[in-house]
Amino acid sequence: MHEVLRLAQYAIELAGGDATKGGKIATSSPLALAMSFRGLARWCLGITGWRDDFDQAVQMVKTAEAVTRGGVLYYTYTKSILHGVLRPGDAILHEMTEILSSAEQTGEDVAFGLAKSNVAFALLHRDGQSRPYALELLGQIRDIAMRQRYSRTAIPMIDVFVAQDLALKGDLDGAVELAQAVVDEEVNGGGVIFVPMATNALVEALLQRGTNVDIQEAQSAIDRMASV
């Protein structure tokens, strides 16, 4: 995250306050995304100013195309919601839903994937009534990721929530197996940011199953997370 912070700051300085400078490849506003990444790095590292970064980035892309708007919301609000830094209030969810409607009209897989991810993860952190719809959206995202039409980094994150849903439905063996696979993939692949989420799902399922071996494995999973 220190390197993310350094590179984000460098990109912000290169933009010189111009929201569209360099915006001919992948995104119409490199500055907005850089502000998003700086805010993400700041809260990860416990540095103040991340809320201001988020506010500026989101405001900057109000009239941008769906990929940039969805990407900025993903790296500001959604990442923060996933890690318990922000709660998905009505205003945040309204903006995410609005972008999803715009993305549906583009027919562009990346725009659609980002917009669906934002809405799905926000809903999963609100009331339980929206859970089936949110999981349906995640299933659609996983499908396009498996077909290499969207980032495959979404797959382990989606599988964490599928594992939690299996546990809620009483399939603890399935939940443990899936969560363990995600933890192994992330740790072995050098991942860091999703390891706590995946470990949380694994430990909760193990403790819910509750054998002596499960409790020992839960402690081992916690120790393994701490080591990375």
Task: Walk me through what this model shows.
This protein has a domain of 72 residues. The chain is built from 11 helices and no strands. α4 packs antiparallel against α5. 42% of the residues are buried. It is an all-alpha fold. Helices cover 75% and strands 0% of the residues.
What are the key terms here?
228 residues, mainly alpha, 11 helices, 75% helix
Write the layout of secondary structure elements.
Elements: H1 2-15, H2 30-45, H3 50-60, H4 66-82, H5 90-106, H6 109-124, H7 131-146, H8 154-168, H9 172-188, H10 195-209, H11 212-227
Helix pairs in contact: 1-2, 2-3, 2-4, 4-5, 4-6, 5-6, 6-7, 7-8, 8-9, 8-10, 9-10, 10-11
User: How big is the Rg?
Assistant: 18 Å
Strand fraction band? under 5%
Terminus-to-terminus distance: 13 Å
Instruction: State mean pLDDT (0 to 100 scale).
Output: 93
Structural class: mainly alpha
Helical proportion, percent range:
over 70%
Main beta-sheet strand count, sense and barrel state? none
Strand segment count: 0
Taking pLDDT < 50 over at least 5 consecutive residues as the criterion, the unreliable ranges are: none
Which outline best applies? Answer: globular
Tell me the series of helices and strands, N- to C-terminal.
HHHHHHHHHHH
Q: Count of DSSP helices?
A: 11
